[in-house]
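Intended use. Records like the one below are meant for learning the mapping from a protein sequence to its folded structure. Do not use them to infer anything beyond what is encoded.
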Amino acid sequence: MKIIDKPNCTVRVFPCYNPYRMPVCNPNRMPECNPNRMPECDSYRMPECGLYRMPACTGVSGGLMDKRTDYITWDEYFMSVAMLSAMRSKDPNTQVGACIVNQDKKIVGTGYNGFPIGCSDDILPWARTGAPLETKYPFVCHAELNAILNSISRDLRGCTLYVVMFPCNECAKAIIQSGIREVVYRDNKYPDSDSVKASTLMLESAGVKLRRMVLDKTLEIHI
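Structure written out for the chain above:
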């Protein structure tokens, strides 16, 4: 092995007689050699062939570079996905997004509030007031229900739902029936409404954990 010292870095060059094969362990010459293990020259790096010279250290201190400390948390990541999904909604008044995450922290479903597939966004009404059939309420499918129906997993038991607004009573039924065990929400704009009261009663009775998430970071996404 040849060692070349440079400022703030040490380059180790290992001889390689065959550039297409890793160094071969010889149990007759190395009593402690294990032919089932690769030779180790550095606790962090595999041996390098002489044809490829790689620095064995980085940073001014001569040690490994530290990881970032300002990365977002899992909660912030999944709630951000829910908020980004909300931007797909055509609703001119309220945009809600939802994100379902399994116990392995993998996203298995997303959704936003909108009309069912095949129902025109330009024909059905978006109004909030007027005769029942002249408003959006009989037609809109909420973000939570869309996330459940769009899920790539048949089994949502034990999953967590991240949603921008507290679920209504109808979505609460779907959440309970699908086996979701926790709801993380950002806002609860209508806590005194009958819908939210009924939703809270059902979710708590079914043992679904409710957790409000307070966001204290501003993230910018430029597309």
